[in-house]
Design brief:
Layout (H helix, E strand, L loop, with lengths): L9 H6 L1 H8 L14 E9 L19 E2 L1 H5 L13 E2 L2 E9 L4 H10 L4 E7 L12 E7 L1 E4 L11 E6 L9 E7 L9 E4 L6 E3 L5 E3 L2 E4 L16 E2 L7 E3 L7 E5 L7 E5 L22 E4 L3 E6 L2 E6 L3 H4 L9 E3 L5 E6 L8 E7 L7 E7 L2 E7 L5 H5 L3 E10 L4 E9 L4 E9 L4 E7 L3 E3 L6 E3 L6 E5 L2 E7 L4 E6 L2 E4 L5 E4 L8 E6 L4 E6 L4 E5 L5 E5 L2 H12 L8 E10 L2 E10 L2 E8 L2 H12 L1 E6 L2 E6 L7 E5 L5 H4 L1 E5 L4 E2 L8 H19 L5 E2 L5 H6 L6 H9 L7 E2 L6 E3 L11 E4 L4 E9 L15 H7 L2 E5 L5 E10 L4 E10 L14 E9 L7 E4 L2 E4 L2 E8 L5 E6 H12 L14 E3 L8 E5 L5 E3 L4 E9 L6 E2 ...
Parallel strand pairs: 6-47, 14-18, 49-61, 52-60, 62-71
Antiparallel strand pairs: 1-4, 2-3, 4-8, 5-6, 5-9, 7-8, 9-10, 11-12, 13-17, 15-16, 16-17, 18-19, 19-20, 20-21, 22-23, 23-24, 24-25, 26-27, 27-28, 28-29, 30-32, 31-36, 33-34, 34-35, 35-36, 37-38, 38-39, 39-40, 41-42, 42-43, 44-45, 46-53, 47-51, 48-50, 53-56, 54-57, 55-56, 57-60, 58-59, 61-63, ...
Helix pairs in contact: 2-8, 7-8
Length: about 1150
């Protein structure tokens, strides 16, 4: 039997009385408070066509298409939405209910709705692994539930209802955290987190049903798959794997698979082609169908069966933008014999990693796998010779491997055998330099601690006769702690000097180890014992089996908890959100089922402390029960915490549902579709905000509603008079990007520090004489307070960060204040892009003597106090970028040049600048998380890396061309620009500029691309420059490698001298020629007119003469007579004209007489 808890015996109920009484006597006892029913949220994923249906839930399937919502938005009429925009909707909704005790859920939800309860949902998108493809960001969107009636037939006005809201999706993210909380009205319901991840290992059948692609689902798992089966570790890439798998089912090629972090799971029989090829050279004692090792990554699953390794790639179009999913399991490392898979819990450099330990002919080698974009490639390490050959031994075997991502180093736990003894060494291998050396040799026997909690192994200590048998290693990349475990536990801060933790019994052996990466870790032994250790301390606690566990189980039996049963088996142990969980198989009669339950570590330790440190004290004439409290303080609080967004880098949008003007307030499919479209549009605008030109006053709400904001009063008027189409009112002001989140009472999970940045807060410790007694409070002196509490700081990388602690005593309140300042030392990071290649480290703040002794009651239960861990990421924080400050640049250029001439065709997105003016560029640093922006004050290098006369003819320049076009050292007459007064060093390849630079003069020399640009229209020549601005290696004020590429439009470019001279010459020649022609024309015009008249007369006369000499005589006679008469008439007319000329002044009467 491998029970997860003890049997339910009556004697255990009696043993629970003492610790139960101790809890009741605590000063913060909860029994005196009014009973509050424990309520919990319930979240289901449903498709859009299942809205309003009961008992329906769907799986998150990636290839589901997004719906077009044009028909819905077109019916809105007068509304703030853009009718030109194409609105889309997500294929899924979140359905939210809650339950409290035995009362029916329908009645509770109805009561909550009528009392004003609204669920508030915060969806957090996990940033992807491959930051080379996707932008690194911490994005959140806050929504509210929209009430919807159930479609179940009902005679009453309101029978059943639920809250619905869109389940958003974001490109590059497959892991989503859904935090559900209350709006503060109605019943008290604790906040709860759900994981709604995309399952890429499904495919759609012809009947429109989903089926798992990795195997066939087993709908009725047999109890023998889990009962009395040893537990096994859960291996995956932390916070990145959307699907988790677990093998270890004896003699079955089956795995457990979940996409909800074991809120529910399925058992799958894998479609494997079992083949024993290569087993002849593998030392396989027994062949079995059991899946021995199972590892889940962001897009791939890996399993080991016997000596063979298989992989399966999920279908994640959201990540890959294409269908790269596998159809069957793929055999990796063909012809290789693999004895073990080793996980790598963290990712780095945009990739995930996995290690396979070789056996047989490859003994002493490690197959190191790199996973990126759904593909894995293995490399055999060491590259030249095996570890055995490098250390010059005959027989050796690698039993475990650990990969340190920050150093890109492999740590190997190697077992050596010689004729006399067996020993183990920790070997370091650097794949970059191909260097291998021994770091540490474990002792042959377990040290004798002689009653100490820990022992620093120096080589001079005494030892027991129990052999030390290592089985594995674990490395925490945040705290830089290395653990070697087996029938012991060794801890090291530098991978070379180790500390032996003596609390763990040498008679037991650790089977696997789990870590929260937040300062807590747990170990599972071969006999299924659970041990707990707080990192940075040396005291280990046995959680199961223990007195505290028996007390906890007894209390759960009194409450009739369904998460516990007399017959149960632990399947695995894991951490989630800094809480320890068990996956157990409960047997109820002949039926069994899997349950995920929380292991209350703080409560178990509290039970043990109270049960073992109580005593009877005589006061007066009677005995009283008293308790010893070993916690050095009464209460611990955090003050003066900075606003979180500046350090946590969480971007948050707020988008409530549209208001329904109907008196009932219930939504329908159309209003939910509108909500879908608005949420999709918010995320679309977020993804499209990458413009290099930035306006200081450009806000998210302005980009979403554009010019509709000026009509907000009109829309409100329509809503107030119930005249909006569809009874839907969209409040534009409620959609916003949140920049002013308030600090909570806890430290953030992680903080980002730029170069020289600091994080400051205050730790407040209140001290009383007895924390567990009902006695009057005593006032201590200042020296007494200082001597009672000490705050220690443990730095994982003291060369990179520093901590400063200032103590202040407030005697009147028995309080000690510790002002803590965490500061980057500007020593361990070069420069990188925003969110790329960050260095992970951590800081642990520990109150001396608090580990395992100090607890705090909260509304979420008991938790431990006195130990604070902060994960620190050094480098360029996500969400920062460099942008071209267009407005300030145009304004400053106008002031300095006394004018500003834009292009004829004005483009508000790309203003023009005149060539002959001095160009003064200005840039600003924009913080997309906090909304702050300010002028960039550092140094930078400006390069023209491309260009062309038009946007269609833009081309990229080669590195050689970039040097010639931009370097002041160039001697090929190719420079495009230069500074007005060059301040760069003479040996600098490129000009180093700053905010105080005096400006840029455009040169466009003879061999530059902008030289001699021919205008194609009547406007002046223009050119588009593709400009790169970078501060890398020239700005030491920040870790950020800002890189900005933008287009610069320059007009009014001059022509080359030769072309200008040619144009002037041709123009002069044409002008002179025209003048000469004009003069000639003026002088020759009278002669030309006379010639023309003569020519015309001759032409007329020539056309009036006879045309032939052989005509008819009668016709000739008649024509001759006509000719004579015509001639005589012409003679008479000619004579009369002469007489008239001779008498021009004759009276009119004489003329009449003559007639």
């Amino acid at each position: 039997m491998y029970p997860a808890g003890p049997a339910w015996r009556q004697c255990q109920m009696l043993r629970a009385l003492w610790p139960l009484l101790a809890v009741l006597l605590a000063p913060w006892r909860l029994w005196a408070e009014e009973y509050i029913p424990e309520c919990t949220w319930q979240v289901f994923l449903v498709k859009f066509n299942n809205v309003g249906k009961d008992d329906v839930s769907d799986r998150f399937f990636d290839p589901e298409p997004r719906r077009k919502l044009d028909s819905v938005f077109n019916r809105l009429g007068d509304s703030p939405t853009d009718h030109i925009e194409k609105y889309l909707g997500f294929p899924y909704y979140l359905k939210i209910n809650y339950s409290c005790g035995p009362e029916s859920s329908e009645a509770q939800v109805r009561k909550g709705y009528l009392t004003g309860l609204k669920p508030v949902v915060l969806v957090t998108f996990q940033s992807p692994v491959n930051f080379h493809r996707w932008r690194v960001e911490q994005l959140q969107i806050e929504m509210e539930g929209a009430p919807v009636r159930s479609k179940k037939p009902c005679d009453a006005e309101l029978c059943a209802m639920s809250w619905y809201m869109p389940m958003p999706m974001k490109n590059g993210s497959v892991v989503m955290q859904v935090d559900v909380s209350s709006n503060g009205l109605g019943p008290f319901i604790q906040s709860k987190r759900f994981y709604v991840n995309i399952n890429g290992f499904l495919w759609r059948q012809q009947g429109n049903t989903l089926q798992f692609s990795v195997g066939n689902e087993i709908f009725n798992p047999k109890p023998r798959y889990f009962v009395n089966i040893p537990s096994r570790p859960l291996w995956h890439t932390v916070n990145q794997a959307p699907v988790l798998i677990l093998g270890g089912i004896p003699d079955e090629k089956s795995i457990l698979l979940t996409d909800t972090s074991f809120k529910d799971s399925v058992l799958l029989e894998l479609n494997l082609d079992v083949c024993w090829e290569g087993s002849s050279y593998c030392p396989q004692a027994r062949l079995t169908t059991t899946i021995c090792d199972a590892i889940a990554t962001e897009t791939m699953l890996f399993i080991r069966q016997n000596q063979m390794v298989y992989s399966f790639t999920g279908t994640y179009i959201t990540l890959h933008e294409s269908n790269r999913g596998s159809e069957t399991w793929v055999r990796e490392l063909n012809k290789e014999c693999i004895k073990k898979l080793c996980p790598v819990y963290s990712h780095s450099n945009g990739s995930e990693y996995i290690m396979a330990l070789a056996a047989g002919k490859r003994e002493g080698y490690v197959h190191f796998g790199t996973i990126r974009d759904g593909r894995v490639s293995f490399e055999l390490l060491p590259r030249q010779r095996s570890v055995c050959q490098e250390i010059q031994v005959i027989n050796c075997s690698i039993i475990w491997a650990v990969f340190i991502a920050d150093d890109f180093d492999l740590l190997l736990l190697v077992e050596f055998e010689d004729p006399t003894r067996k020993y183990f060494q920790v070997v370091s291998y650097d794949p970059v330099r191909n260097d291998l050396h021994v770091l540490y040799t474990t002792p042959e026997f377990i040290p004798d601690a002689q009653g100490l909690e820990f022992l620093v192994i120096m080589g001079t200590e005494s030892y027991t006769n129990v052999p030390m048998v290592p089985k594995g290693m674990f490395y925490n990349q945040h705290s830089n702690l290395l653990y070697i475990w087996g029938n012991f536990l060794l801890q090291s801060y530098n991978n070379e000097n180790f500390i032996y933790l003596a609390d763990f019994p040498k008679e037991h052996s650790i089977k696997y180890l789990v870590n929260s990466f937040r300062g807590d870790m747990a170990m599972v032994t071969e006999t299924e014992e659970i041990w707990y250790l707080q990192e940075g301390s040396y005291r280990m606690y046995k959680l199961f089996p223990s007195m505290g566990w028996e007390t906890h189980v007894s209390l759960q039996a009194m409450q009739q908890s369904p998460a516990y049963a007399p017959n149960e088996t632990m399947v695995t142990l894991f951490y989630e959100d800094n809480k320890l969980y068990q996956l157990v198989y409960l047997m109820n009669g002949q039926q069994g089922h899997l349950v995920k339950r929380h292991v209350p570590v703080a409560q178990l330790l509290r039970y043990q402390q109270v049960a073992s440190h109580h005593y009877l004290e005589r006061k007066g004439g009677y005995l009283t029960l008293s308790f010893r409290n070993f916690c050095p303080f009464t209460a611990m609080h955090l003050w003066d915490l900075p606003k979180p967004q500046m350090y946590s880098r969480q971007e948050r949008y707020r988008a409530p549902p549209p208001r329904i003007l109907d008196s009932s307030g219930f939504h329908d499919e159309n209003s939910l579709a509108v909500y879908q479209g608005l949420i999709h549009y918010v995320l679309y605008l977020h993804s499209q905000y990458h413009k290099p030109y930035v306006d200081r006053e450009q806000e998210f709400i302005g980009r979403m509603w554009k010019d509709k904001r000026q009509y907000k009063d009109y829309y409100f008027y329509l809503a107030s008079n119930f005249q909006t189409p569809g009874n839907i009112y969209i409040d534009m002001a409620s959609y916003e990007k949140v920049y002013d989140l308030k600090a909570q009472s806890d430290l953030p999970e992680r903080i980002y520090l730029d170069k020289g940045a600091s994080y400051v807060f205050t730790v407040v410790l209140r001290v009383e004489k007895h924390s567990l007694e009902l006695s009057p409070e005593l006032v201590f002196t200042g020296e007494e307070l200082r001597s009672k509490v000490y705050l220690g700081v443990m730095l994982a990388d003291p060369d990179c960060i520093e901590a400063e602690v200032k103590q202040k005593v407030v005697i009147s309140r028995n309080t000690v204040l510790f002002r803590v300042t965490l500061r980057d030392k500007s020593a361990c990071f070069d420069q990188g892009l925003s969110g790329h290649h960050l260095m992970e480290t951590s800081i642990v703040l520990k109150v001396a003597g608090s580990a395992g002794h100090c607890f705090q009651n909260t509304h979420q239960g008991l938790r431990m106090q006195g130990n604070l861990m902060i994960t620190v990421l050094l480098g360029c924080p996500p969400g920062k970028r460099l942008a071209f400050d267009v407005n300030h640049t145009v304004h400053y250029n106008r002031l300095q040049n006394k004018h500003y001439f834009d292009c004829d065709k004005v483009d508000p997105e790309m203003p023009c600048f005149l060539y002959r003016d001095v160009f003064y560029p200005f840039f600003l640093i924009q913080d997309l998380v906090t909304g702050d922006s300010g002028s960039f004050q550092g140094s930078y290098v400006l390069k023209v890396v491309g260009g062309g006369p038009t946007l269609d003819t833009l081309r990229e320049y080669s590195e050689e061309e970039v040097y010639h076009f931009n370097s002041p050292l160039d001697r090929t007459e190719s420079l495009i620009w230069t500074t007005k007064n060059t301040t760069a060093p003479t040996d600098s390849a490129f000009t180093i500029m700053s905010n105080q630079s005096v400006g840029i003069r455009w040169l466009c020399l003879e061999n530059s691309p902008c030289y001699d640009i021919i205008p194609h229209t009547f406007t002046s020549p223009e050119f588009f420059f593709k400009v790169l601005v970078s501060n890398r290696d020239v700005d030491r004020s920040t870790y950020c490698d800002y890189q900005l590429i933008f287009l610069l439009h320059i007009h009014g470019l001059p022509l080359s001298p030769k072309r200008a001279l040619l144009i002037v010459t041709v123009s002069c020649c044409v002008f002179i020629g025209l003048v000469i022609l004009y003069i000639i024309f003026c002088f020759l015009l009278p002669y030309l007119v006379n010639v023309w008249n003569r020519f015309r007369n001759r032409f007329r006369r020539s056309t009036s003469e006879p045309s032939s000499s052989y005509s008819d005589p009668s016709r000739i006679f008649s024509r001759a007579s006509k000719t004579k008469s015509t001639a005589s008439s012409r003679v008479a007319l000619h004579g009369s004209s002469k007489v008239a000329e001779a008498r021009p002044h004759a009276p009119e009467g004489n003329l009449k007489k003559e007639k």
